[in-house]
Amino acid sequence: MTDSFSGVINFKEARLMASNDLKHELKTLIIKTLELEDISEADIDECAPLFNEGLGLDSIDALEIGVALQRKYGIRLDPEKDEIKGHFASINDLAALVDSQRVTGELSA
Into how many domains does the chain fold? Predict the structure, then answer.
């Protein structure tokens, strides 16, 4: 007899590990794409804003990140939509965007 509760916990642990891996990938993608030589993954707080007072990125950086996300994950972003800013607010928000499109198979945000 298997314990279905432990299966749920293992699934949640697997999702958390996948989420952490994705956040690691996104931090690396940002550092490499923007050539942030003085920044390490540890310097990027997953909850902190990526723009202005947080990491200090600007709109040109957002465009470069958007192109990199499209290339790596196949995500199509509509810059005319208001919610696009929310998707780029933090590493956590970017991870949620990528993860949601992986799960639903949607190709526009």
Answer: 1
* Gap between the terminal Cα atoms of the chain: 43
Output the DSSP codes for 16-47. HHHHHHHHHHHHHHHHHHTT-TT--GGGS-SS
Is 109 a domain residue? Answer: no
Domain that holds residue 76: 4-38+47-104
Task: Judge whether 29 and 97 are in contact, CB under 8 Å.
Answer: no
CATH code where residue 92 lies: 1.10.1200.10
Q: Is 95 part of any domain?
A: yes
> CA 14, 16, 19: angle at the middle one, nearest 5?
110
Question: Reduced to 3 states, what is the DSSP secondary structure of residue 80?
Answer: coil
Please check whether residue 55 is in contact with residue 44, taking contact to mean a CB–CB distance below 8 angstroms: yes
Over the stretch 54-106, which tens digit does the pLDDT of each residue have? Answer: 889 998 999 999 999 999 998 878 777 768 888 999 999 999 999 887 755 55
